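Input/output pair, single chain:
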Amino acid sequence: MKQVTDIDLGRTALCVALDAYLVRHPEEHLTIGQLRDFVEREVGCFERSTIEGHITGSAWVVDEHRTSTLLTHHRKLNRWLQLGGHADGNVHVWEVALREAQEESGIDECMLLSNEIFDIDIHVIPARGEDPEHLHYDVRYCVQAAHTNYAVSHESHDLAWVPLDELERYTTEESMLRMARKWNSLNNAF
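Output:
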């Protein structure tokens, strides 16, 4: 009899969460299917050492008024993005998103608004140094943070609280605009 590991349980839990996400967002079935397939076949999906790619956790951070989002001007990618990072073995991706929001902003007053997946994205990370080009299978969650002083981490050029109606001044990336649209449609649910 095969012993069930924490990784097996984490992979199963993520697939269940993706199934629930599919019910809410059937229009994203192709991306959901690709991410789910990766999680089902790749035992090392939570480890950054997996060459093909790995699970990352990101946070759509909103302020207490829920009218602004906190973005990072990412040092390596040189773009305004949501906060987030590698799972590094943590199978609870919502914990990764919350940790990354706190670490990358220096704001301790962060709270997860829901442990349901808010958004997913699969994107290519270019080769850099010893790291070959690979995929980030990004699972995103809603986080609320105090609209207070923040600290720019070594991973960023800058951080900014961006009013949602001004988001396109910072980015025109579809995944960012998609999250804004989702947030605007769901905001009353939180």
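Residues 6-24 form the longest helix (19 residues). The two ends are 43 Å apart (CA to CA).
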